[in-house]
Amino acid sequence: MPANLPPDYLEAEEKYRQAKTVPERLACLREMFALIPKHKGTEKLQANIKGTIAKLKKESQRQKKKKGFSYKVEREGAGQVVLVGPPNAGKSQLMNILTNADPEVASYPFTTHKSLPGMMDFEEIQIQLVDIPPVSPVYMESWVPGIIRAADALLLLVDLTSKDPPAQFEETREVLEKSKIILSQSEGEVNARRSLKQTQGVEQSSEVKTGFVYLETLLVANKNDQPGTEDAEQRLKDLLGLRFPLVSISAKEGKGLEELKRKTFEALKIIRVFSKIPGKPADLSRPYTLKRESTLLEFAKIVHKDFGESLKFARVWGSGKFEGQVVNKDYLLMDKDVVELHR
Known about the structure:
- The protein folds into three domains: about 70 residues; about 190 residues, Rossmann fold (3-Layer(aba) Sandwich), CATH 3.40.50.300; about 70 residues, Beta-grasp domain (Ubiquitin-like (UB roll), Roll), CATH 3.10.20.30.
- Helices cover about 35% and strands about 20% of the residues.
- The chain is built from eleven helices and twelve strands.
- Strand 2 and strand 3 form a beta hairpin.
């Protein structure tokens, strides 16, 4: 017997698939259960919803009982980005102004003693930032590399008022490399570079190293509100600008933060895709996030697992195509596409 699920139920189900926290998921599931038609064709689905609600309730209770500090940071939002830098680079101040977190901010070094997550708004999505203790050759908490290795990207802060900002960056890079963390290179990029050199008969100088992680890195030159920092900023650009995306900011004065948000989004290498139910306008406030070069079929499976087999075609708005163009399963989605799936 067919389920014949109504559009309101499908909307609630879509919200559930986009929900990031346990309370949000529970609210969506309860709405789904209230909207689902109660007949023989939906009995299995009703049981699945009830079972999932019971599991999430237990998980919610476990989270409430947890006390103390955990080194693990639960992932939320469209991506997880860690703020990395030496003492007094301004990480906590930047975290304070960009997110809903409330880190301790002081003028003396090593103020931050634990990891602190917070959510940064960027247009229709939220990106999780994580503030951590300083990365320094003098001292680094033993658990810090584990937090960094699990991230999707890094914001590496450099203090423009320091004696030698490029040297400060290099110190940070060396400390991270000792923990098997390589900045700004994905394994795919390194492999492509290696293949090109082998084809051209050039000796290989950069390879993917076993056990290392390669993290997209955005270089953040902080404290540009201070006098005399123009030369330091130019030296950073001259020495590192070709290797790393660089944005100049003042966390104290709030300068350059919109560009920082945009470049952080770009560092995650993701796209936003909006789902549209046939006959209804698209909800442009709640996009799905996918990796760049994701296909229509990959998106369809995220919206609903059954679409993997039952998808017939889709219409797409955006991407410079004509409005509502019919596309096939291999179509490569673009940022801010609106997709109407048909099965």
